[in-house]
Design a protein that fits this description.
By secondary structure, the chain is mainly alpha-helical. It folds into two domains: 30 residues; 273 residues, no CATH class. 65% of the residues lie in helices and 0% in strands. It contains ten helices and no strands. Keywords: Membrane, Transmembrane, Transmembrane helix. This is DUF2333 family protein.
Length: 316
Amino acid sequence: MDGTAPAGKPQGNWAKRGLGVVGVLAVLAGLYYAGGALWLHEIDDDPGFAQDVEVPENGSRAVAVAAALIDREVNVHRWVANDPWFQPAAILDNMPNFQAGIVAALSRFAIELTDQIARARGTSQVDPDADSAAGRLKYPGDVWIFEWSSTPVQPSSESQYRKAIEDLRRYNERLAAGNANFERRSDNLMATLERIAADIGGSSAALSQRIEDYGDAWIDPAADDLFYATKGRLYAYYLLLEALGIDYAGVLGERNVQRNWDEMLASLRAAAALAPWVVANGELDGQTVPNHLAAQGFLLLRARFQLYEVINILLK
């Protein structure tokens, strides 16, 4: 009479308990990832960041700003672009792309520092600290300390960027002491501006291609990745060029180009400040869905055109 009923009941209870545990773990995992990601998420596009950066007497403001910007992203906000799957920031995409864009611009500046600004003439020796910083800032931003696809253990992205901070600050200290070069000539500035303008042009081409390929889609899930990578690049260039304007104030004043310089900075600042709630890649003539990539591209091209205006004036 009571043969199977008592045996079935405990099994059902264990099944319910198992499902309950799984449910609790799923909720905890959701809270861990969502809460942790919200806590860490930071798109810091403060245009006044460089105002409080300390610059050694007779040092370079642009170099000091570059070092401070890396320090902020790596040590203050925390570098998240290489977080592994078990860390909550692994689910973020806008912040990692923004950080990668910043480092891309800083890498270009470090290369120009090595090739142009920190050399007395084209045939002089390469500055060792500037060269070291340029090499470290080329390091990929998504390398965690354990990378099983290549070697089991290798330097993480942030470890390389921290060493780049040391390189830049050491160079600036040597410059302040008179043991390094920082050529404040118009030809050095022009060469640097041309490379930055070319890099911005590459970003414009990427935006244009994305709009052409996906601009008529209702949803473009990768539009925000490109938008924030470009935003980070433009933000870093704004801060660097603002600082270079102080480093080269004598050249800008002598060539009467300060007004054009300020207009170019205003365009870069406006482009870097764009921050839609959701990045849309709608049709260019659409009525309901905007195209934020096109808006960003417009301001980007305006700043690039103004950069070339400055270069043309410096040529005269």
